[in-house]
Amino acid sequence: MTDPPAGQPAPAVPGTRRPPGDGYKWTALTNTTAAVFMSALDGSIVLIALPAIFRGVHLDPLAPGNIAYLLWMIMGYRLVQAVLVVTVGRMGDMYGRVRIYNSGFAVFTLASILLSFDPFDGGHGAMWLIAWRLVQAVGGSMLTANSAAILTDAFPEEQRGFALGVNQVAGLGGMFIGLVAGGLLSAWDWRAVFWVNVPVGVFFTVWAYRTLRETGRRGGGRIDWWGNITFAVGLSAVLIAITFGLQPYGGHTMGWTDPLVEGLIAGGLALLAAFVAIENRVRAPMIQLSLFRQRAFTFGNLAGLAISIGRGGMQFVLIIWLQGIWLPLHGYDYADTPLWAGIFMLPLTAGFLAAGPVSGHLSDRFGSRGLATGGAVLFGASFLGLMLLPIDFSYWIFAVLIALNGIASGMFASPNSSSIMGSVPAPSRGVASGMRATFQNSGTAVSIGVFFSLMIAGLAGSLPHTLTSGLRQQGVPAHVATQVGGLPPVSSLFAAQLGVNPVRHLLQPSGALAHLTPAQQQTLTGREFFPTLIAGPFHSGLVIVFAFGAALAFLAATASLLRGAGRAAKATATRIPRPADAPEQARAREKRDL
Fold first, then answer.
1. What CA–CA distance (Å, rounded) separates 307 from 279?
2. Is the pLDDT of residue 389 over 60?
3. Which of 57, 191, 280, 569 could form a Cys-Cys staple with 125, CB 3.0–4.6 A?
4. Nearest of 194, 177, 200, 180 to residue 56 by alpha carbon
5. How far is CA 351 from CA 28, 171, 523, in A?
6. Taking CA 413 as the corner, what is the angle to CA 410 and CA 417, rounded to the nearest 5 degrees?
């Protein structure tokens, strides 16, 4: 083949795409960053807004059975994302990453609109919200699974860490900012937590369809239906078992001895084992197990899983600590605690936003292993610091510790994502991005069950006696105080998370409040009685969960250290076929690289 005349572009090689221009990569970064931010925002914005949502649909959060609505409002979104991201990442490899990504934006925006128009009350209203949250998560999965692959295609290797770092910072930043936004928006109207997505979603959906284009190869292939079914049903069974396991059963404080829970866990694990066996046999697997031969991919995902479990659980615990105990003890009304909990957690968000982009840039120059490992170690150290705090802490010490935790998350997230995505061949970037997101979302979903179980176990030892004796000291009859004190700790825990003072609610059915003096009534239903009562048992639970979080962080640091030195390996499938190659040879080489 002769060279083209001077001044004319070289002809495109069959089977390849012309590299994107410099302007396109910034368009791709802006759009995907907005998408990942919006998807992650909705994963956490509901945490703070739950009290307003429950009041808005007129649902009593402490009534028997309603705890399940609360759990699925939080966990359903993460469950769908954990199940779907690998599949839609694979679909992006097959049919075009931009095509699947653009469809995800449209689905996410439509679901946000329908969430804000809940026509029902009570349990039906909660089911409407849960159902459309699941649909919203489908759209969010299509966005997050393909955004990292789009960026990896658009950016050269020397800038990839920066681009993926910004994208990852947007995702985790959305998770942190959602805690503040949920408080601010729900103080105005609970529906506003869903309205906020609509104008952003409409604008970026249109912009994505107009500006994004395919720059990577489409891998062809087929959907691994048996792998998808066993993975989805198996993981769903385990997470459903967690929701039942957190609720009382047969006189026990939790339901882990419930035969239904045991059956779901056993069946779910069996299906996940079958999934691994299937993936080793099918021609086009849902998860490419061969990717785990790459040390950076394997240990990066293991480290990311451990950090996501610790980070997700920490958010829940801090919200409960602030809303249920610290803020009421410092004079804040229960109705205002969701807003102020988000505001007082701003140092966590600020630390993450400050460290994330910087660490992404540094990982391009110095590699990922040192930054990610150092971030995991600092993450664990912040847990140890929080474990040593008294329950009624000095805020500036708390602010410093959560800021350090945010900095540690930022130090870890960008280099870890860059290392994972840079270790896989180009045609597998969509499924690799989905696998990375699956580990992260599964960790966040599992963290709810793990941390709440540990917290309830810590409360169960002393809370019943503490609650019973505290009520009796205020004149509540012994039989009523014993009955209230014997209620499962999970009710008190969720009352604290929702910023609810449950004492009036628990005593009203017996009529005991009406027989007490005005001073006793004021004490029992005031801001300080319930927080002071549960402070001691709650601190016992805090020590357990923060120690576990520190152990997870140091496990992540060890895994990160084992990922190997040097920059991420170049993707072998980015090699351009020689012009003399026959089309059959080029296709054969592409299939081998896949």
1. 26
2. yes
3. 57
4. 194
5. 26, 15, 39
6. 150
Measure the CA angle with vertex 585, ends 582 and 588; round to 5°: 150
94: nearest Cα among 145, 25, 161: 145
User: Cα(433)–Cα(97) distance, rounded to whole angstroms?
Assistant: 11
- Report how far Cα 101 is from the mean position of its chain's Cα atoms: 19
Helices (H) and strands (E) in the chain, counts: 23, 0
Q: Give me the DSSP letters along 269-281.
A: HHHHHHHHHHHTT
Identity (one letter) of the amino acid at 85? V
pLDDT of residue 272: 92
The residues with which 12 forms a beta bridge, in sequence order, are: none
Look up residue 257 and give its two tokens. Answer: 């001895």
Is the CB of residue 377 less than 8 Å from the CB of residue 432?
Answer: no
pLDDT band at 161 (very low <50, low <70, confident <90, very high): low
Structure tokens at 234: 């198996």
417 vs 356: CA distance, rounded Å: 11
Q: Model-level pTM?
A: 0.76
- Tokens (6 digits) for 239: 């997470």
Provide the strand spans (E) within 107-253.
Answer: none
CA distance 542 to 548: 10
Tokens of 486: 């014997």
Give the HSE-up count for residue 45: Cα atoms under 13 Å, Cβ half-sphere: 26
Angle at 488 between CA 487 and CA 491, to 5 degrees: 95
pLDDT of residue 250: 75
Q: What is the DSSP string of 461-479?
A: TTHHHHHHHHHHHTT--HH
Sequence length of the chain is: 594
- Model confidence pLDDT, tens digit, residues 271-327: 999 999 998 888 777 778 888 888 889 999 999 999 999 988 888 788 888 888 899
State the Cα torsion 114-119-121-123 to the nearest 10°: -50
| 405-444 tens-digit pLDDT | 999 988 898 788 878 877 888 777 767 777 787 788 788 7
Structure tokens at 264: 């779901």
Residue pair 533/476 in contact (Cβ under 8 Å)? The answer is no
Per DSSP, the three-state class of 399 is helix
Tell me, what's the pLDDT at 593? 37
Q: Please tell me which of 13-27, 341-355, 378-392, 452-466 the model is most confident about, judged by mean pLDDT.
A: 378-392
Give percent helix, percent strand, percent coil of the chain, each to the nearest 5.
Answer: 75, 0, 20
- The one-character DSSP state at 223 is -
What contacts 172, CB < 8 A, 6 or more positions away?
40, 352, 356, 409, 410, 413
